[in-house]
Amino acid sequence: MRTNLDFAPLFRSSIGFERMLNALETASRAETIDTWPPYDIIKTGDDDYRIAMAVAGFSPEELAITQEQNMLIVLGQKANGDDVQYLHRGIAGRFQRRFELADHVKVVDAGLVDGLLTIALKREIPEEMKPRQIGIETGQPRSKAQPKQIEAGKHAA
After folding, report:
1. Of 73, 119, 68, which is closest to residue 95 (Cα–Cα)?
2. Is the entire prediction scored with pTM above 0.70?
């Protein structure tokens, strides 16, 4: 049973959440039937993640990893053998897998070992966006500076 959600009221009453609401709306519409290549998403620390993707048969030269703003795209493309005639082709020769990334998540590194592509991710929040402690002073309140007075003796010529 599938229920379609109407996000219009949320769009009307929220400010700055458009990206999240668009992602929810897209996820509710999309039917994922593509299950290849299989992958795991692992949280390895408070701000550290790892994607492990089974890409057996692909060499590092046949794989491409691209980060475009908040989207991580993993592409695999096997070289076409012109002299090969297939009677049945059941092994995928290409794939594209997309991952939506949160703000400030960056790819740290990637590696391919024994057919397992591992992509390390880290959320790096800029220093100016991190919480900061504000000190509280005690004692007498500061006196307000006297407002500047406009000289009354000068007239326009």
Report:
1. 73
2. no
